[in-house]
Amino acid sequence: MVEQKDTKQPVKKFAGIEIPPDLTKGNFFFLYFNTLLIGLLMVIPAILQPAFLKDVIKVSLDFFGSINGLLQNMSQVATLFFVGYVGILSDRTGRKILAIIGFIVLAVFYFLFLYSNQIAAALNLSAGFSATICAALSFAPARAAEFSDFGQGLLTAYFIRFIIGIGLVLVYPQFITMVGDYVAEKDRGKGMAFNGMMMGFGSLLIFGIVAPIGKKSGIEVIFYISVAIALAGAFFTIVGLKDRLREKKAEKKGLIEILKVVNKKLPLKATYLCSLITRADIVIIATFLVSWAVKLADQYNMTSEAATLKGSIPMIVMGLFSLIIMPVVGILIDKWGRVPTIILSLFMGALGLILIGLSPNPFSGLIYPAVILAGFGMAGAIVGANTLAIDASPKGLVGSVMGGLNTMQPIGVLFFMGIGGYLFDTFGPGWAFGLKGAATLVLAIWMFTVRGRIAEELKEATSLDNLTFTMEWEDEAKKRLEKVPAAFREAAVSGAEEYARKHSYDKITPAVMEEYKKELGM
User: Fold this and answer.
1) What does the pLDDT look like over 428-439, one tens digit per residue?
2) Does 522 score more than 70 pLDDT?
3) Domain that holds residue 327
């Protein structure tokens, strides 16, 4: 649609973002509030899992890094299998229904997660079989006997964590894509930044409020809190959100076809690489930092819950800083540019991760400046990549492209969690962070070398010259199309021209566009 200021009817805004006439402030509020809720549910395993594995499942500390990493990766495996299809499905069925189903799945299986041992006993799982599978998954098949005491509960926990991953992948991509559905291109940097702010605020709440509750009341309470959050998410999605699929329907494309499209477009290729590498940051830092603290709990005369809380303090700092920096990131993306912001963020993120790797323990003062750098890097790279991906997406494929983009995350997390967990156990916890920092640094250098080509291709992809005009357009009228998201411009052109012919206009002027907007109720 073509956007224009109306002196008689002031433009509605939410947090500085222009609200389309068919949406309300309530829709925007619940979009971002539900983003906060799913952010809580995505981060909460970081404080659940270490203490749960040590005190409930009672795993061996010799395999603590690999088991923590693999349990986190169960969610990523689910994402890898389903996120591409979920993105395509969202273009066909709408985003809302998928989010509702996902929240319900999360409520059920976060509850069952706590009772993994009891479920394993009820199913009468074979101790030998469970130990063999779990040992192989920890890259230690020859040490299966060491898994016999806890293998049944652990194998059940792996399966439940996989189902939780399915719930997450049904929900979180919908809210990223809905930002593209709701927000015009000129405000999209702010829209994506606000999405990132809610995710960052979710991390802050988990590490700053939920972790202390766990220390005081026990790890079981956190499972029940997770169930309540998921049920709230389902309710608020039902009452507060509406679908707004405004793009032209395109031919149905699977993930392989989407990757072929991405491979031909350097801006999209850059965003996919950013997602592959940088979206693993929060998972790597939260999982291994808290696991490191819990593993050393006995050496520092702390309980697992106390170590979880102390290991969470740097995550509180990181979450608070990310929350503060997100508006700045949004401004940088809109004013300075998507690509420069991403490059700066990658260099800062790489430095932060390497500093964590060099820290002598998870309670060192060096951790704090490191997580601040990592927080800026993560915020800028993720929000910048999301924004750039929507800008560069071919019309009719925004949901599918974003689905493919989200597929890159689990691939990256699978690699960095799997290899990082092995390095954690074999060479020391710092190696897991060093590996991640080195990969981010390589990506930053590559993007810096191709930044000019990315900018040129993006300018060409969003040029008005790509549109087909069947009538004469005055320059001022055509210029107004620049405010319309690139993926929706063809629909705006065809709609305006159809209106003009219906009313016997021989060309499109700003006045004609004004009339067309009023007919649409804008």
Assistant:
1) 999 999 999 999
2) no
3) 13-461
